[in-house]
Amino acid sequence: MRNIQAIIFIILIILCPFHCYGVFHSNFVINNIKYEWSPPLPFNQVKVVGVASKDITVTDLVIPDKIHYDGEEYEVYSIYERAFENCSNLKGNLTISKSIKEIEERAFNGCDGLTGTLTLENGIEDIQGAAFRYCNFSGDLIIPNSVVSIGPGAFRDCGFDGNLVLPENLTTIESQTFENCNFTGELIIPGKVKRIEGAAFWGCYGFTGELRLPDSIEEIMYGSFRNCTGFTGQLIIPNHARKIYGFEGCSGFTGPLIFPESLEEVGEFSGCTGITSIHINGRVSTIRNSSFENLTNLKTIEINAPVLTIDSGAFNGCVSLESVILPASLTKIGASVFIPSPNLKEVTCYATTPPDCYYDAFKEFDGIDMSQYPIDVPLYVPASAIEQYKSSTGWSRFFQAYPIPGTEISPQDITLSNDEITLFVGEKEKLSAIVSPDNTTNKTIVWKSSDESIAIVSSDGTVTAVSVGTARISATCGTVSATCKLKVNPVTATTIFINVPDMEVYVGDKVMLSAKITPDNTTDKSVIWTCMTPDIATINSQSGELTAIAPGVAKIMAACGTVTDMATITVKPILATSVTISTEDMTLVVGETGTLTATVRPEGTTDKTVTWGSDNDAIATVAADGTVTAVSVGVANITAKCNDVSATCKVTVNPVIASAITLNAQNLTILIGQTEKLTATVLPESTSDKTVTWASDNEAIATVAADGTVTGVSVGVANITAKCGDVSATCKVTVNPVPAATVTINVPDTKIYVGDKLTLSAMVVPDNTTDKTLIWTCSTPEIATINAKTGELTAIAPGEARIKATCGEATGMATVTIIPVPATSVTISTDDITLLVGQTGKLTATVFPENTTDKNIVWESDNDAIATVTSDGTVTAVSIGITNITATCGDVTSTCKVTVIPRIEAPIDFVRKGNGTSCTFIVMMNLSDEQLAQEGYRFVYGYTDIQGSEHIMTTTNLRYCHTTPEVYNNNGNDFWVYAFLANDDGTIVCSTRRHLDGRIDFEANANMLSNYLNRLANIYNPENWITATSHGAQITLPCAENAFVTVHAINGTFMFKRNYENGIEIIDEITSSHLVPSIYIVTVSCGDTTTSKKITIR
C-alpha cells in the first residue's frame, strides 16, 4: 500500500507542472510593468522585461517580490537585460525587492529621470554590467551583503551624494564600476576583495575620509582611483599586494607610503602631493616612467626592492626631495628621474657597479641645464666602487663620493633564535639574532613587525602579541634580514556566570542581563544569549536585553566561546484593576442589536478576558462579544466582568413602527393596454400595521388597483404611490407605443456583380407598429456598403455581404452574394522584343474591362533557358534563341516573342596616329586579332560632322583605318568607331560606340550600318579592289564616284596619294618602281567606302 501511495505522489509531481503551465500567462502587464515567463524558470517565477508604454510616467518605481495575476501568485526572479534602458519617464526613487536575484546588463542604463534614492533589498545576488549606468541617483548607495557579483560599469556616472557601502562577499571590483560617482565620506573595501580593476573609482572626487584597503587585496589596476582627490590620511598598502597602480591625482593622502614585501609591480602615483616618504619593498624590478611624478611634499625615497631600472621621469617634479636611497640591484637610471630637486641633501646607492645614469638624472632646477655643473650633495656608495662612480656618466657630477658607513665589513647573513613562534594575546617572548660574519662592523639589528595590529617588537627583539592573527617579525642588519613567523592565538574563556537581578519581573518588562567571564584577559568576551522558553520571554542575542512575554519561568543560557551558564527568571502576570463599558445607557427597538465594548485597566493586564451577562434574557440578551439583542419591550441590565471587577449598562427596549416602504420597481415601462403588478414591502418586518393604499397621479395615463395592478391607458408618464402610515414610495410608470416585433428583408433573386447598386426593402410586423422607420447596416464593409436610410447597396468586392435592417428593437438579417467581374482580354505592351544575352527588358500588360475585379498577371516563359520573366514582367535574356513570354489573367492570355542575340565586345580605346599627312586611326580591343577573326568581328570607322550628319569612312576587319587629310584634319569632325557582328539571318549586332575623346555611346547606329552594307553589296565588294601580286599589288576599281589611292609605310608614314575623277575605271599597280622594298598599307576610297590591305614590295 505504501509503494502505491509513493507512485501516485510521484505522478502528481510530474503532472503538476504541465497542468500549471497550461494556465500560465507567459506575458502580462501589471501597473505598466511587463512581466515574462520563459524556460528554464520554474512555472511560478517571472522576470521583469520593461514598461508596457514609455509614454506613461512612472514615479517611485518598486519592483515587487511577488505579483498576482489571473488568480495566480508569481515570484519576481530577475530584471531582464535592457528592460528599462533609456526610459526617461522613470522618475524619483527606485526600490528593488529581495526576491530579485539578477539585475541583468543595462537593465536601467540611461534612466536619467531616476533622481531619488536607490534601495536594493537583501537577496539580490548579481548586478551585471552597466545595469544603472547614467542614472542620477541621490543619497547613499548601500549594496546588500547578498550581492556576490557586480559587473563592469554597473554604477558608472550614477550621481549619488552619500556614502557607499559595499557587500562583504565581493571578491573583485570590476572596471569602471563606480566611475564618476559623487560619493562622500570614507571608503571601506570589503575583506574578501582581491582585485580592483581599472578605473573602478576613477573621478570619485567626493570621498572625504580614509580609504581602507583589506589585507586580502592583491592587485589594484590602472586608473582605479585616479583623481579621487578627497581621500585623506595615510594610504596603507596591504601586506599581500602584488600589483599596485591607479592613484594618480589622489592629492589628499598624507604621510609615508610603504610598499610590502609581496610587491611585484608599482606605478601611477603622480600628483599624490601629500605623501612625504616612499619605501619600496618586495620584488619590484622596474619603476616605470612618471610613476611618482610631482609628489611636491616628498622628502625621502627608500628603495629596498631588487629594482633593476628606474625609468625616465619616475620622480620628476618632487621639489621637496631631500634623501634618496637606491638598492644594490640597480643597473639603470633614466633621464630626469630626480629633477628638479633643489632641496636634495644626500644620495645613497648600494650598487657595487655604477648603474647607467643620464647626466640630468639629479639636481636640475629653475630651468637651468646643470649637466656641466658639479652637484654639491654627498653621494654614499660602497667603498670598493667609489672610483668607478667618479668616472661614470651622471655620477661624476657629484662633488664628492663617500663610502657607505660599514661597507668595509658588511653583514652577510642573519640568523634568528626561532623561525616560528606561537603566543597568546598579551603574551611576550624575546627573540635574539646572530649576525655573520662575526666581525661585521655594525651589528645593529632593526626589528620590525609586518603587522603591528597583530604584534609589536621592541628594539631588543621582545615580541608582544596584540591581537589574533599572523605576522612576520623581521630582523635587519644592513642589507640582510631574517624573519620569524608569528602566530597569535586568542585567550579563551574558561567560565561564565549569569548575574540574575534581584527583582520581580512582570509581563511586558524589559531587563538587561549581564555575565562575568574568566579569565579577565579573555580575548573575545562576546556573549551569545539564548532563551530556551520563547513563549515566556525573548532575549537579544547580543545585548542580553530580556523581554517578558507571558507568565511562567524563563530559562536563559549565556555562552562565551565554548563555555555556558544557565539561569531562570520568573515572569508574573498583571491583574485587572477596573472595567468600563463603552456606554452606561442603551435604547433599542424589538429585534434590534447593539454592540458594547469593555475596556480593562491597566493596559498591560495579562488576561483581559471579559464575561458578559444579562439580568433579564426575556427582554435583552448579550453575546460573548458584547452584542446586545432586543427581545421584547422592557428594561434589562447588561454586566461586563474581568477577574473580580465589573461594570453595568442599562438597556431599554421600545416597540416597532413602520420606518420605510419599498417597491419592487421604481420605474416601470408598459405598452398601451398592458398590465403589470407592483409589490410593496413594509419595513421593518416586525411593523404592526402593514396596510398599503395605492394611487395614480394621472389616471388618464395609467390606473392602479387595490392590489397594485397597473394598467397602461395612453402614451405618457404617471406616478403610482404606495403608502403605509406616514411612509410612502413612488414608481414612475411610462406608457409607450406599440414597437415592431420582427423585420424580414426582401432579397432579390438576381446576380450582383462588383460595382452594381441595388435598393433593398423589408417587411415590419405587426402592422400597427407605431414607427416603421428602418436603419440599414452592413457588417462586411469590405464586401459591400449600404445607405443607412434608403437601403441602397453598393457591391465592392466578391463575397457574402451580411445586411441588417433595424426597426426599433427588432432586426432582420440577410446575405447578398457579390460576384467578381472577370477579365475578357489581356494586351502586352509589345508583340516582339530583341535583347542581347544578359540584357533585361520590361513588359507591361493591360487587362480589360477596366473594372475587372482581379487584375493579377501571371508571367511565364516557354523556354527559361533562352529568357526568363519575373512576376513584374521583367525579361532577362539568358542565351541565344527565340522564345515566347505569356501574360495570363484569369482565363485570358497574351503572348510576346523574345529574340536573344549574342553580346559583342566593345572597343576599349580609339586613337589617331598621324601628322596631318599620314591619316591613320587605331582601335584597341580586349580580344586578340586571332579571336577577332575567328568570331567574325568587323569595325565601322566614321565621324559626325559639325552639322551633326554621320559618315562611315570604312567597314573592315582590321583594327586600323586611313582617311584623307581633308577629313582627318577637319577639327569639326567627331571621329568614332564600333564593332559589329553579322548573324546568319542577316541581323546585325553592334557594340557601344567609342569616340576619340573617350566618350561612349551606348547604342551604335545599327540601321545606318545595315543600309550602308546593303548599298555596298549591291554595287561591288571592296575586298576585291586590291589584289596581291608576286612583287606588289594590283588595284582595279570600277568607281562611279570620286576616288583616291593612298599609301603609308607600316609605321604610319605617308608615302603618296593619287586622285581619280568619277566615272574613270582605276587600274593601277604598286611595285618597287614606286617604293623601296618594304611593308606598306594601301588604302583605296570610293565615295564613302574605304578598304585597306597590307602589301609587301620585294
Overall description:
It is flat and about 160 Å long. 5% of the residues lie in helices and 43% in strands. It contains 5 helices and 101 strands. The strands form 29 sheets. Strands 1, 2, 3, 5, 6, 8, 10 and 12 form an 8-stranded mixed beta sheet that branches. Strands 20-22-24-26-28-30-31 form a 7-stranded parallel beta sheet. Strands 88, 89, 91, 92, 93 and 94 form a 6-stranded antiparallel beta sheet that branches. The chain has 1098 residues and is mainly beta.
Protein topology:
Blueprint: H1 2-23, E1 27-30, E2 33-36, E3 45-51, E4 58-63, E5 66-69, E6 72-79, E7 90-96, E8 102-103, E9 118-120, E10 126-127, E11 141-142, E12 149-150, E13 164-165, E14 172-173, E15 187-188, E16 195-196, E17 211-212, E18 219-220, E19 243-244, E20 255-258, E21 265-266, E22 275-280, E23 286-287, E24 300-303, E25 309-310, E26 323-326, E27 332-333, E28 346-349, E29 356-357, E30 379-381, H2 386-390, E31 401-403, E32 413-416, E33 420-424, E34 428-430, E35 433-436, E36 446-449, E37 455-457, E38 462-465, E39 469-477, E40 480-489, E41 495-499, E42 505-506, E43 510-512, E44 514-518, E45 528-531, E46 537-539, E47 545-548, E48 552-560, E49 563-572, E50 578-581, E51 585-589, E52 593-595, E53 598-601, E54 611-614, E55 620-622, E56 627-630, E57 634-642, E58 645-654, E59 660-663, E60 667-671, E61 675-677, E62 680-683, E63 693-696, E64 702-704, E65 709-712, E66 716-724, E67 727-736, E68 742-746, E69 752-753, E70 757-759, E71 761-765, E72 775-778, E73 784-786, E74 792-795, E75 799-807, E76 810-819, E77 825-828, E78 832-836, ...
Parallel strand pairs: 3-6, 4-7, 6-8, 7-9, 8-10, 10-12, 11-13, 14-16, 15-17, 16-18, 18-19, 19-21, 20-22, 22-24, 23-25, 24-26, 25-27, 26-28, 27-29, 28-30, 30-31, 33-40, 42-49, 51-58, 60-67, 69-76, 78-85
Antiparallel strand pairs: 1-2, 2-3, 5-6, 32-35, 34-38, 36-39, 37-38, 39-40, 41-44, 43-47, 45-48, 46-47, 48-49, 50-53, 52-56, 54-57, 55-56, 57-58, 59-62, 61-65, 63-66, 64-65, 66-67, 68-71, 70-74, 72-75, 73-74, 75-76, 77-80, 79-83, 81-84, 82-83, 84-85, 86-87, 87-90, 88-89, 88-91, 91-92, 91-93, 93-94, ...
